[in-house]
Design brief:
Layout lengths: L32 H21 L6 E5 L6 E5 H14 L16 E3 H21 L1
Parallel strand pairs: 1-3
Antiparallel strand pairs: 1-2
Helix pairs in contact: 1-2, 1-3
Length: about 130
């Protein structure tokens, strides 16, 4: 299996600041059936969001981080990779906020969902007019 996670800059370093935390991956429980279904649904939604919003210049989504309490700006590829990692490994990836993102280039998950709903409603309205 290919893991597209960034390389650990402290790999093999005896002064690794995270060394005292131990191996956190050993305690990962597999996702429940419901959790897997949720992640698969998120992946499907993400594909639709990207297909409709990327041509308009949207680079990704904003995510409210429960861990650090900050808003993260995450590009499409990284979002996809993070969800695949969660699905495959049962744990979210360690994250790092984007460097100097332009907030204009990102929308929230809720905005993306609303946009898709609007496109679907618009298409259904056009079909009803025919």
């Amino acid at each position: 299996m290919h893991d597209d996670a960034p390389l650990d800059p402290f790999a093999g370093d005896p002064e690794d600041p995270a060394a005292s935390l131990g191996d956190l991956g050993d305690d990962a429980a597999p996702l429940s059936v419901a959790e897997r279904e949720d992640v698969l649904a998120d992946l499907a939604d993400l594909e639709v969001f990207r297909a409709l919003l990327e041509p308009l210049g949207v680079r990704g989504l904003t995510v409210d981080c429960g861990d650090c309490g900050k808003l993260h700006y995450i590009d499409w590829e990284l979002l996809h990779g993070n969800l695949r990692h969660l699905l495959d490994q049962g744990l979210p990836r360690v994250h790092e906020p984007a460097l100097s993102p332009d907030p204009v280039d990102y929308v929230s998950w809720e905005y993306a969902r609303g946009y898709v709903d609007g496109v679907i409603d618009s298409e259904e309205g056009r079909e009803g007019d025919q």
